[in-house]
Amino acid sequence: MALLQVEDLSIQFHTRGRTVHAVEHLSFCVEESEIVGILGESGSGKTTAMLAVIGLLPRQAQVTGGTVLFQGMDITPPPDGRQRKGGYEKRMQTVRGSGISMIFQDPSVYLDDMMTIGRQITETIRSHEKCSQKEADKRAGELLYQMGITDPKQRMRQYPYELSGGICQRAALAIALACRPRLLIADEPTTALDTTMRRQILELLKRIGRETGTAILAASHDLGVISALCRRVLVVKSGQLMETGTTEEIFLNSCNAHTRTLLSRVREGGDGTEGSGSTDVLLSLQNVSRRYEVKEEAVEDVSLEIHRGESYALVGESGCGKTTVARLIAGLLEPGSGEIRYNGDRIIPLGERRRKDVRIQMVFQNPAAALNPALTAGEMLEETLLSAKQGKKGACTEEIKRVLEQTGLSTSELPKYPYEFSGGQRQRLALARALILNPEFLICDEPVASLDVSAKKQILDLLAKIQKDRNLSILFISHDLGAVRKLCQRIGVMYRGRIVETGSVREVCAAPCHPYTKLLLESEI
User: Fold this and answer.
1) Do residues 242 and 258 touch, judged by C-beta distance below 8 A?
2) Per-residue pLDDT averaged across 262-268, rounded?
């Protein structure tokens, strides 16, 4: 008998007076100790299917058919969300943790900012296992160390908001593995990680499966992750199973048109775009440093120049200081030493001038966290204009229409709330909010990290077009070297708070000098 058996599962959502079929007649199984991948684009239904398995479907989801069996036990969610209490929830509480555990794409969804990382791990351990606090603390430290986190004792005392996205994801992995589950569901487990840490986490997951017998069901839009981790692959589109087979069969000899399209998009690459040719320095950092309590997150003696109309990439491992540099440039942090100049003027952090200065705008990695869930798209864009005193209430229609057209959104989507958009659409909305103020300089902090290959290509093409049309300067922060090659002209490589190598994208990628740059290129999946 299979460890997990899903038969003819169908799920639909009822929202805004319409019905959306998220999963349709989906069937698959996971054997003991097997690693199975679900490959699909954003909105393909892969996450919905996994939430059904672990019993975490939202109330508006209706299970219209099918069964879910775990070790022969029927754990099929009741059709009505209001019925997912009582006996069903009691049964699932015995399954979650030691039976089935799940890693979510966005660690901010389930990491509590009011609790330290250590407490969140130890509470998970003690809720499922009989052990002392001292034993739980020891186990938590070991888990964090296994996840590649240096100085685990220090990290255990920190809160999620103090850590980078990559470190938060590694902490989330530690929580998921704390009770040694029989089945680990991984929903985009390496999205927030840099290339070197991504490879380490994938190797760790494979080792866990091999040494403990834990089966893994991994969902991703990243073909590299699926091919590196999984033995068998399911390809889904619009909630339906397109094809299934071994990794070799799917990637080397696929007979499905949708799969072949996904593969062809991944193979599309680039070697860095041509520069703007401008020698006009728009932004300069001279010997900028910013120190934190944890040394690994410090920025040390960073100097760089970005020209007008240029895309400059800043790459490096999670926690190396990339986002800190972005916040310093945006004026959200003050440097401990050094100087930042924009168009010749010194940037004054957090002052009255910075609040009114809209020349520099920022697009964050996670649009779901950056967008106000209580405002519609239209209200959000109008509020942005009003807060910058660039319009009057009710008189912003033309500006909103203009920016929607530029970012590939339509006016019919203005009444929607952020949760009603796909990941790619939310990132377009975040980009529209930044561009509506007509900035000269745009900071993009991992803007395509959580997107599938199709949405990623669309956003990168959109950024390239907007840059050309507006002569916009872009600081593009990423651990995705493929995205860097496609969009950027020059690159700076950060390692432990310092820029260790810089040059044109083509030169650095073709002939890297620093050992860490070589490691980054070798770690590409």
Assistant:
1) yes
2) 68
